[in-house]
Amino acid sequence: MFRWFSQVAALTLFNLKTLPQRLGSVAAAVVGMAGVVAVLVGVLSIQQGFRRTMAVSGAPDVALVLRGGSDGEMTSILGRDDVRLIAEGPGLARDSTGALASPELFVIINLPKKSTGTDANVPMRGVTPAAFGVHDQVKLVEGRRFEWGRNEVIVGRAAQGQFRGLDVGSQLHLGQNVWTVVGAFTADGGLPESEIWTDAAVLQPAYRRGNSFQSLKAKLVSAGSFQRFKDALTADPRLNVKVQRETEFYAGQSRALTAIVTILGLIIGILMGLGAVFGALNTMYTAVAARSREIATLRALGFRSSPVLLSVIAESIALAALGGAVGALGAWLAFDGYQAATMNWQSFSQVAFAFRVGPALLLLGLFYALALGLVGGLFPAIRAARLPVATALRE
Fold it and tell me: Per-residue pLDDT tens for 106-135?
């Protein structure tokens, strides 16, 4: 057994030492593999970034209340009486101003993208003072908060980076109304950073919404208070509402886009992977053909077929690992943290988010490269192991 392992090690080392003699084909295989991994990781980083943005947007101790039968804020409506009854529900957290129940108005405005200049749907949210207690991750980082009762707004940092006209001090002309941007905020990278916030009492008449809201977000005493709060609201005959944890709601919002991106990434990865496999096959067949006499000599000296086979596969996997590492590193440098915006099909508005290339995604790309290297080296390895000694010595 020791002799067998020593033969595998000796042959593998011999193969790797001959790589400089085949620099052209080796470089082509490494670059091809790097490209496959970089593209695969880059596409899937969109999914990871969008999912993270939606995940950090919700909190387990925050409940979201919509009109019964609604699947999102755009299709929901809550009246003033509904809001009052919901705010009286059990299990709500309170501060000096009362229950932390935030009725919110959700409208869509058009703003040009910085990258293309084309108009995009941007969410504008009307809030009440309780919103800053419910959304405790929201932190002002520039300027000041808007004053209640005035046409002033604060904007999320992600929206500010993606859309024109959102710098602090600038003015937004929306219909017959002019709004002044007075501050910018962050929200730990969550969905609110894609939004524009203002006083709901000012936004309602501007968009002819009367005393209505789209949703209500309620801060609970604890995550365990959710079921009691939900049961009380759904059992009240005066209300027709749908109650979800905020985390569940945003997980559902991200499901459609993440599924599309995942399928797209797999299709691209498979198609490009086929090209990488053919590149590896070409490289390894060339290597076997160029060294057929050396391999036959080693066989004649007593080296067995299985060490020859494993040494060729090991060389292919080593090249794939090198290409995969280069591609993963390139994808991390190019995509991690890259800011972009895409459509949230649940709300028909833009969501700004950052691509995310984490360790799990890098390992996935490297594993995919190793799998392609194994497949690409298998058939040339079988040919090398089965090559008749006498025939090879005459080549």
Answer: 998 889 988 888 888 889 999 999 999 999
Give the per-residue SS3 of 324-382. HHHHHHHHHHHHCCCEEEEEECCCCEEEEEECCCCHHHHHHHHHHHHHHHHHHHHHHHH
Q: What's the sign of the alpha-carbon dihedral 190, 161, 253, 356?
A: negative
Q: What is the pLDDT of residues 284-294, one digit of tens each?
A: 666 666 566 66
Q: Read off the pTM.
A: 0.77
Nearest one of 374, 378, 394, 384 to 289, comparing CA atoms: 384
> What is the token pair recorded at 96?
């000096």
The pLDDT value given to residue 389: 55
Q: Which of 348, 337, 125 is nearest to 257 (CA)?
A: 348
Weakest-pLDDT range from 71-85, 174-188, 196-210, 272-286: 272-286
Q: Would you say the C-alpha torsion 198, 204, 205, 208 has a positive or negative sign?
A: positive
> Is residue 87 scored above 80 in pLDDT?
yes
Q: Which residue has the higher pLDDT, 238 or 26?
A: 238
Distances (CA, A) of 342 to 46, 162, 191, 316, 355: 10, 10, 12, 39, 11
